[in-house]
Design a protein that fits this description.
By secondary structure, the chain is of the alpha/beta class. It folds into three domains: about 170 residues, Rossmann fold; about 160 residues, TPP-binding domain (Rossmann fold); about 200 residues, Thiamin diphosphate (ThDP)-binding fold, Pyr/PP domains (Rossmann fold, 3-Layer(aba) Sandwich), CATH 3.40.50. The strands form four sheets. It has a six-stranded parallel β-sheet, sandwiched between helices. Strands 11-10-9-12-13-14 form a six-stranded parallel β-sheet, sandwiched between helices. A six-stranded parallel β-sheet has the order 16-15-17-18-20-19, sandwiched between helices. Helix 3 packs parallel to helix 4 and helix 14 runs parallel beside helix 16.
């Protein structure tokens, strides 16, 4: 609800800070800049209501805000300065776009009077961000701050959630305006059409091999429980979309695995056999569709697609039934629908689950460290409310294949494959939920892209535990290199520090793991320390993926 207009004027900087409060922001992740000094002053006045998190790199700041948006369903907020700051921040905006995460990025801007002169650090943000943001605007009049900021927050959570960018002209932040604050627009979420669930259930009644794929963002715990009750109650096997492992209990007899980059061939084969796909919340994008090859674009394999954004339904694949609905509203409506009395596909569901169980069994790996076994032992001692974050790279397929999230745990990962996401996302998660254990998975490449943000964790009292998988290379690119140009190693080897000593230099807890049995005790010591921690897992560089060695990739390439 809007506050009454204040008789005295406020500066633009004060209005901006007050607008953040009015729209529910609790944290602002920022790298300071001279282009928004007045906003910083406004945030000082609101320091008891908004925590200003001082970061070391703009990409890290936006990743932290994006992680908060994932966890809370409310827009995460980041503030960066103009020019180079905004350019550094762009990767986080792209993550939020492809992950459908609500985010508001505020960017300092040059004075309006200097526009189009190629002034110092000038960028046209409407042109720069428009391909990767839901909406880009610029505030040049202080009196319009409440209106435009409220709309920015509304847009970020509407339909398919995503990022909004708001540029703030420098002099506007000094101007006075006597205007009321404006909060979020109260809305009822879009519910399924009256005949949506009856039609879905009629299609399910005639099915013999249904498969659900869960994805999307802004799921609430109640919504996840409701969709679980609907799917389990109807004995439907459930896959999750790329890096959405937190949406369904991985220990359930109905869990089929993740359908994304590096998906198990057994699950992909089952998805091809399915005679009904229930795509709930997820986009049917490139990772889920296995490069747009898994489903017939013309719709010969029936798909029911549930999504909050109508334009996503049928965007690539023609579907048998499109249901425009907010994911939690759909979940509750589905859970209230009478179940099918005697599903015919219990054998199918068991076969899908068996494929998942087969691929999650730990193979024998050469050397003293069997990472698959170590991760499965670690899984047993993790708290029930652990938040996992992951970076991008081949290392990420190890926990995805061999570990199972449970109800109450969360998983944050960049579906756009952004390296450098894991560490700042873990810090953002730890700041958002200081009472929960946060465990980050990151490769040695990604660890040095944004690993300096560990300083932010110390500065703000956050204590994530970071597992650095060190194999001395950009492993994903080396894998592709060996497949295409076997033996011709170029540009993928890395020189790394001692990561344990790196965090010890900040005053944190460092460990090095080289053997299977060392990981769980190292984690327990790291957790007991109460400090930010790095556990460096030194991997066998020959085992470049969890399914193949470099020698095997070269041999396969030689046969082609």
């Amino acid at each position: 609800m809007a506050d009454a207009a204040r008789p005295e004027g406020r500066t633009g900087g004060q209005l901006l800070a007050d607008a953040l409060v009015a729209n529910g922001a609790t944290h602002v992740f920022a790298v300071p800049g001279e282009s928004y000094l007045d906003l910083l002053d406004g945030l000082y006045a609101q320091r008891n209501r908004i925590e200003l998190v001082t970061c070391r790199f703009e990409a890290g700041a936006v990743h932290m805000a994006e992680a908060q948006g994932k966890l809370t369903g409310r827009p995460g907020v980041a503030v960066v300065t103009r020019g180079p700051g905004a350019c550094h921040a762009a990767i986080g905006v792209h993550v939020a776009q492809q992950d459908s995460t609500p985010l508001v990025l505020l960017v300092g801007q040059i004075p309006v009077s200097e526009t189009d002169r190629e002034s110092f650090q000038e960028v046209d943000y409407r042109r720069f961000f428009s391909p990767i943001a839901k909406w880009v605007t610029q505030i040049d009049e202080a009196a319009r701050i409440p209106e435009l900021m409220a709309h920015a927050f509304d847009v970020a959570v509407s339909g398919r959630p995503g990022p909004v960018v708001v540029a703030l002209s420098e002099e506007m932040q000094k101007h006075l305006a006597a205007v009321p604050d404006i909060g979020p627009q109260p809305l009822l979420p879009p519910h399924p059409a009256p005949d949506a669930l009856p039609r879905l259930m009629a299609m399910l009644e005639t099915s013999e091999r249904p498969l659900a794929i869960l994805g999307g963002s802004r799921w609430t715990p109640e919504g996840r429980a409701a969709i679980r009750d609907f799917l389990v109650g109807n004995d439907i096997p459930v896959a999750v979309a790329f890096r959405r492992q937190g949406l369904f209990d991985g220990t359930s007899a109905h869990y089929a695995g993740d359908l994304g980059v590096g998906a198990d061939a057994g699950l992909v084969a089952k998805a091809r056999e399915a005679d009904l796909i229930l795509a709930i919340g997820t986009r049917l994008g490139e990772p889920v569709s296995q490069g747009y090859t898994l489903f017939d674009l013309a719709g010969s394999q029936p798909i029911v697609h549930v999504h909050p954004e109508q334009t996503e339904i049928g965007r690539v694949h023609r579907v048998a039934l499109g249901i425009v609905a907010e994911v939690n509203a759909f979940a509750h409506a589905a859970a209230a629908t009478p179940r099918i009395a005697a599903p015919r596909w219990s054998g199918w569901r068991a076969a899908v689950r068996a494929a998942r169980e087969a691929q999650s069994k730990a193979p024998e790996y050469e050397g003293p460290l069997n990472l698959a076994v170590a991760l499965q032992e670690l899984e047993k001692v993790l708290p029930a409310d652990t938040i996992f974050t992951t970076d991008a790279g081949n290392f990420a397929t190890w926990p995805t294949r061999f570990m199972h999230l449970r109800d109450g745990q969360d998983f944050l990962g960049p579906t756009n494959g952004a390296m450098g996401y894991g560490v700042p996302a873990a810090i953002g998660a730890a700041i958002t939920h200081p009472g929960r254990t946060v465990l980050c998975f990151v490769g040695d490449g990604g660890a040095l892209m944004t690993g300096q943000e560990i300083a932010t964790a110390f500065h703000h009292g956050a204590a994530p535990i970071i597992l650095v998988f060190n194999n001395g290379m950009y492993g994903t690119i080396r894998m592709y290199q060996e497949r295409t140009y076997p033996g011709r190693v170029s540009g993928t080897a890395l020189t790394n520090p001692d990561f344990a000593r790196f965090i010890e230099s900040f005053g944190g807890h460092g460990e090095v793991v080289t053997r299977t049995e060392e990981l769980v005790p190292a984690f327990q010591r790291a957790k007991a320390s109460g400090k930010p921690a790095i556990i460096e897992v030194r991997m066998n560089p020959e085992q470049v993926t969890n399914r193949a060695t470099i020698a095997q990739l070269r041999a396969q390439a030689g046969k082609r």
